[in-house]
Specification:
Strand content: 15-25%
Number of strands: 21
Number of helices: 19
Shape: globular
Strand order of the largest sheet: 17-18-16-15-19-20-21
């Protein structure tokens, strides 16, 4: 088979990009075609996702890709989960889609417990009660603006709205549907029980496609907009649309049993399993059964990630301090170790005006001396993250009954070699770091498999290892890290 080129459209919390990925001779060639800002829109006291702006930027990127790439064999989309839009009977959006950080879901977990009973949503879906989940957004919307669900005739997740605008076809991909807490991962279908209690008609929720299926083909209008009129139609393939599911599909694993950590703004820690595990232990340990590629399950825990570092840099930038990553990494490497321990999921760190001040406040609250200087602050955050990963991994192994010796670490934080080493030290496990662009890579790998270019997971791993620089980190100083972990647990009450 000759070279095949696909486009991965990867939408994150702050930016979107289109990456051309060509598979030839067992290796990937990746080229960033277009990048654009993608932030939520504040209007009054509401917070929206600007879907039409995103669509406009995707069209701009596809036009550029059509000019720069020799061929386009397929396209795939991935985004964050949980956010959605409603279409009316004329297939127009009913209002602007809300961003998951909008406050409409505030208090809706308690409302849901009143409607469904405590723990019922988890029992039905395998998904944890997270305040931003789609079901809570929908409950809040029915209270705050009932016109939208009342007039809605089609429910679509954000990547599926964009897919509809690109192809004219209305469907939802499995990994996106599984983030809603309205989808039964056991039956692989929408939960009739939940929809009935929500007062939502089943007909509003379209067919769920499995990963790798064709969502549709670029419409004639879109083809004209990007300069492809008269050319062969391009399929939009259902990539693992939830970005963490795409990232998990970029793991270059040589064995079946492993742990993966995708560290971006959030840290997603988990393992890929065949069937959901819906037990009291899973619920109490804050694990969720989310959709993974090809109908599998990601048994995952979501904790805070590099958000604290991102916000520290913003705090320092406002104060005129150096925020270059190279400087910060060097300062952290030279800083005093274990100056303080943080529960990175503490409410103080959710949306502080000043992250440095929030960390100082947390230290004062827990009777600790705050870090001194940028290096100590940075080091404190990544040490604490490493310890929180250790706790989450301990819980995961207890749930699965498996001892897993390898942690695959993915995402932008892979560039921080000190952090990678800390994860190995804290967990006592081998850390395999890379690829960095995991989400876009996983998106592309699904497309290439759909096109018949990749046969199975072993070939998937071979291509990834042949293409990307994958670094291994072995545990060091484990006795010291074990001792400090006990201090961390006492202070954070983990």
């Amino acid at each position: 088979m000759g070279a095949k080129t696909v486009i991965a459209i990867d939408l994150g919390a702050s930016s979107g990009r289109l990456i051309g990925v060509t598979l030839q001779d067992g290796k990937l060639d990746m080229k960033e075609i277009y990048r654009f800002p993608n932030e939520g829109i504040h209007a009054g006291d509401r917070f929206y996702t600007d879907v039409l702006h995103i669509f406009h930027e995707i069209i701009t990127g596809l036009r550029k890709a059509n000019q720069e790439l020799e061929s386009i064999d397929a396209i795939g989309l991935d985004t964050w989960g949980v956010d959605f839009a409603m279409l009316d009977g004329a297939d127009e959006m009913v209002g602007n889609p809300f961003h998951y950080r909008d406050d409409q879901s505030s208090g809706m977990i308690e409302e849901a417990e009143h409607i469904f009973g405590k723990g019922v949503l988890f029992e039905e879906t395998g998904v944890q009660d997270m305040w931003y989940n789609t079901v809570y957004q929908l409950l809040g919307l029915k209270k705050r603006n009932p016109r939208i669900p009342r007039d809605g005739r089609t429910f679509l997740m954000i990547p599926d709205v964009l897919g509809f605008l690109l192809t004219g076809q209305k469907n939802i991909e499995y990994t996106s549907a599984a983030t809603t807490q309205m989808y039964d991962v056991k039956k692989k279908d929408w939960s009739e029980k939940i929809l009935k209690e929500l007062g939502m008609d089943r007909s509003v929720f379209p067919k769920v496609l499995m990963t790798g299926e064709v969502k549709g083909y670029l419409s004639p209008v879109v083809a004209q907009l990007i300069g492809r009129e008269g050319q062969a139609p391009v399929p939009l393939i259902a990539a693992a649309q939830h970005d963490s599911a795409s990232a998990a599909h970029a793991v270059p694993a040589e064995t079946e049993d492993y742990i993966f950590i995708n560290s971006g703004t959030w840290s997603i820690i988990g393992s890929i399993i065949d069937e959901p595990v819906i037990t009291r232990e899973v619920f109490e340990q804050n694990y969720s059964n989310e959709g993974a590629a090809y109908g599998k399950i990601k048994l995952v825990n979501t904790i805070m990630g590099m958000w604290l570092v991102q916000e520290l840099r913003k705090s320092w930038e406002r104060k005129g301090k150096d925020t270059d990553y190279g400087f910060l990494l060097d300062a952290a490497a030279k800083a005093k170790p274990f100056t303080a321990f943080l529960d990175v999921d503490d409410e103080l760190f959710i949306a502080p005006v000043d992250m440095e001040a929030a960390i100082r406040q947390y230290c004062e609250k827990t009777g600790q001396e705050p870090p001194k200087g940028q290096g100590e602050f940075y080091r404190t955050v990544i040490e604490s993250l490493a310890f929180q990963y250790r706790q989450a991994i301990h819980d995961l192994e207890a749930i699965t009954g498996k001892r897993m010796d390898t942690v695959h670490f993915l995402g932008g934080a892979v560039r921080d070699r000190l952090f990678c080493q800390f994860i190995a030290n804290a967990t006592g496990k081998k850390v395999v770091a890379g690829p960095i662009e995991a989400t876009a890579v996983g998106n592309a790998m699904v497309q290439l498999k759909s096109l018949g270019c990749i046969s199975d997971e072993k070939e998937n791993a071979r291509i990834l290892r042949a293409t990307f620089e994958i670094a291994d980190y072995m545990p060091q100083d484990t006795k010291v890290w074990d001792e400090k972990f006990e201090q961390y647990r006492k202070i954070t009450k983990k």
